[in-house]
Structure formats: structure tokens, C-alpha cells
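Hi F.,

I've been meaning to write this up properly since the lab meeting, where we talked about keeping a consistent format for the predictions we share between groups. The idea is simple: the sequence comes first, exactly as it goes in, then the C-alpha cells exactly as they come out, then a line or two of notes. No screenshots and no reformatting. I'm using this chain as the first example so we have something concrete to point to.
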Amino acid sequence: MERNSEFGRSFRRFGIITIIAVYVLIAVGSIVRMTDSGMGCPDWPRCFGQWIPPTDISQLPENYKTVFAVAGKQIADFDAFKTWIEYVNRLVGVLIGFLIFITLMLSIKFFRVKSNVFWSAFLAFVLVGFQGWLGSKVVATNLQVGMITIHMGVALLIVLILIYSVFISFQNTLKPEYIRQPRLLISVLIGCLILTFVQIILGTQVREAIDQISVHLGNSIRETWLEEVGLVFLVHRSFSWLVLGVNLYFIWLLHRNLRTNSRLLIWSKILIGSLLIELMTGVVMNYWAIPKVLQPVHLSLASWILGIQFLILLRLNYSK
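Output, unedited:
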């Protein structure tokens, strides 16, 4: 019994490390977008045909633009910085694959007692393989509009599945909390989750549109980029107030229906703090020509908020 308990703790610890690592990957992916390094490696899984990318143009053939053409189009001039940013992103992705595989192996012990721990870890492992394949298609289509949004959506799904797997393994160690209106709270929180997910997808589409616009307008007139995006940006900007309002309503309900010493109240404070910071970064990006440094922060916070909401949902559902 003691051995099983220790094994469970090992799974939980490693599972939490894996979840953190996936969040790091999301942040790194955003840095790739921020630095326009998405096509830093024009082929996959190698980079310029090499397992270790070149550091200087002299390491490439003279006709490299044609040799490594993507979708029938010559690639841009070689940039060592962008190449290595993209390659590091791929290395982190490979690391995540190994971490999720180890998480899956550790979950086997739960197969007979809590099979959903194993099957959710297995699903995360399958999805990370699909994510790798999808990443190759993103490169092969030269960052085709829509592909990046799907890529982001799958990354978020992997995070939520891992959170579910680790939470279920914790379930017997958690004490039920007194909640007066669990059904109402759960319904409102599900609405928060849906709104946040939609907002992230809208933000990804805004980013895709900006990438297209920047190619034509250039960095010299960044101030006009958002004006050129059009309706999707206006919807994304207005939608943020709806997301904030519904989340504030949920937090207000939560505080009315929980004991004062509930751990969920601590998570609710983390949630509201994250939401306010996220809103402030959005405002700054809107009025200060989308500072590059804030782009990874904005996306990472949005992903973090979604994870917190899902964790609270699992806790509320358990406490019914």
C-alpha cells in the first residue's frame, strides 16, 4: 500500500512538471511568432537538411533558397537567429514528447484502480504525436492561415487533458468542500471556459492576420496594423470585456458559496489577478503598436487562465 502511495506521488510530481513544460512550450511558440521565426527552418524534422542547424550562410549551398523552397516559393534570406529560435522550439517540443511518454508510463500503475488516469495520459501522448505531425504541416504550408490556430488549439487541449489526468490521481487525497450552489457555479464556469477558449482562438486569428499584413506594410508602420486587421480584431477586443465580466460574476458567486478557508478561494484570487494582468497587456498592445515583448506574455497568460478555470471546474465537480 505504501509503495502504491509513493508511486502515485511520483506520477503526480512528474505530471505537474510535464504540465509546466507544456506551458513553457506555448510561451516558446509565441516567441517564435514574435520574432517571425516560424520559417526559420524551412524543412522538417531537419533544419536546412541538417540535424544541427547552420550558424552561418557559408554552411549552405549558394542556391539554398531554391533547394529549400516551400510550397513552390523561394524562402527568405537565411537568418541564423530565426533559425535557432525555431530549432529550439522544436527541441522543446521533442522534450515535451518524452515527458508525456514518461508520464504515460507512470500512469500504468493506475490502470486497474483509476483507468481514466491512464487513458487521459494515453490520449495526451497520442495528441502530442499528432501535434508534431501538425507542426510539420505548418512548415510545409509556409504558415498557412488557419494551421497555426489549429496548432494552438491542440496545444491547449493537451494541457487540459494532462491537468485532468493529474487531478484525478489526486482525487482521493482531497477533502470535499461545502458548496451551496454547485450546479450554478459549474454552469457559469463552463461558460467562462468556453468564452476564454474562443477568445484565445480569436487572438490567434488576429495574430495570423497581423503576420500577413506585416509582410505588405513592414515594421515601419506597426501603428496601422490593427486598423488593417478589421472585424476579427474588433470582435476580439470587445469580447475581452465579456470574458472579464462573466469571470468576475463567477468569482463573486464562488465567494458567496464557499467556506472562507477554501483553497478554491485562493485559486479564484489567482484567476482574477491573471485576468486583470491579461487585460492590461491587451490594452498596452492596442495603444502602443503591439510591443513584441508583450506578445508571449499575452498568449501565455491566456493559456494559464484557461488551465486555472479547468482546474477549478474539476474541483467543483468533485465537491458536488
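Notes:
The mean pLDDT is 83.
The two ends are 28 Å apart (CA to CA).

If this format works for you, I'll send the rest the same way.

G.
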